[in-house]
Amino acid sequence: MSSHLERLQSGFRSDVKSSASKVAVKRSAPQPPKAATTTSNTTKSDNKDSKRKREPANIVYSQPAATGYGTEAFTQVTYVIEFLKKKDERKTFQEILQYLSQVNTDELKKKLIAKILRQHDRVRWIPDPKLKAQSWDSGYFEHRPIIQVKNEIDLITYLQKKTTAQGVSVKDLKDGWPDCDVAIDKLEKEHRILVTRTKKDNHARMVWSNDPTLLYEIDPEFQVMWHKIELPSVDELVRKLLEAGQKPASEDPSKRVKLAPKPKEKKKRAPRSGGKTTNTHMAHLLKDFSHLKR
User: Fold this and answer.
1) Rounded distance between C-alpha atoms, residue 111 and residue 133, angstroms
2) What strand order describes the sheet that includes 193-197?
3) Is the separation of the CB atoms in 80 and 141 below 8 Å?
4) What percent of the chain clears pLDDT 90, i.e. is strictly above it?
């Protein structure tokens, strides 16, 4: 009997050992895929690196150099107008090309610049009196200001010739007469012009013609007496006019009928019309019964 139990016990132990060895083998078996994953990771990283290497680098385009002058003809003309305005004297076309650094440019572009200058409203072209037939690059060019005024006499004459009461902008005057502020201050003190000024800097803004013969000096004592006189109120003025038998331009305040303020009407919200109604099953609940209120 004991031998039989020993046999069963030894068999059970052998089964346990064999099963334990199998479990250990099974647990150790999944180790090879780690290498596979590492190899796959390395291959993926290599592929990513290769893909990254294939991506084109960002191209940084160079900015245009600051050449100082434009290349288009109209841009050149803008610089020419400022040049003539600053110099305030006539210039030949060759002098203009030297200023623009366009002496060695092609003739077609030179002709285009000369043509635009001759037709521009801010440039005056003066033919060369020494030539019988003018060429495309002959004559003189000078700045044509907005207002042809460059001294005090010209300003007074220009203002007196105006047919309207509109003032003259000082900004437009400075286009052809940059230092006109001194003359404007002088003429204002002489009461020959009227001037409006800015509140912040007290700079002249607009000017009008003025007649100094209409200026009369008033005694300071009379001015004080004049300002001390109190004007009657509107209601009192109407009564005094009626007492004097005169009809006032405004109605008598005593006869004014004060209207009671109208009560504000509540705006009724209009029912919504149009659109697709989706809640038809609630039509009896959404119906407006406000008109049935007592």
Assistant:
1) 17
2) 168-169, 204-209, 193-197
3) yes
4) 43
d(CA 167, CA 1): 140
Residue 182 and residue 152 in contact, taking contact as beta carbons nearer than 8 Å:
no
Please classify residue 30 by burial: count the beta carbons closer than 10 Å to its beta carbon, then call 0-12 exposed, 13-18 middle and 19+ buried.
exposed
State the maximum Cα–Cα separation within the chain, in Å, rounded to a whole number: 158
Strand segments, DSSP code E, in the chain are 91-92, 123-126, 140-143, 168-169, 193-197, 204-209
Return d(Cα 164, Cα 141) in angstroms, integer: 32
Q: Is 76 exposed, middle or buried (0-12, 13-18, 19+ CB in 10 A)?
A: buried
* Distance in angstroms (rounded) separating the CA atoms of residues 240 and 250: 13
Q: Rounded mean pLDDT of 60-68?
A: 47
Mean pLDDT, residues 198-217: 92
Determine the Cα–Cα distance for residues 112 and 123; give it in Å rounded to an integer.
15
* Separation between Cα atoms, residue 21 and residue 18, nearest integer Å: 5
Q: How far apart are CA 61 and CA 285, in angstroms?
A: 70
Angle subtended by helix axes 93-100 and 73-87, to nearest 10: 110
**Residue type present at position 98:** Q
pLDDT digits (tens, 9 = 90+) for 97-124: 999 988 888 889 899 999 999 999 999 9
Residue reference for tokens 């007469």: 177
One-letter-per-residue 3-state SS of 33-57: HHHHHHHHHHHHHHHHHHHHHHCCC
Which tokens in the block code for residue 241? 């006019």
Domain 73-143 classified CATH 1.10.287?
no
Give the three-state DSSP class for 28.
Answer: helix
Architecture per CATH, domain 152-214, reads as Orthogonal Bundle (1.10)
Which regions of the chain carry the CATH code 1.10.10?
A: 73-143, 152-214
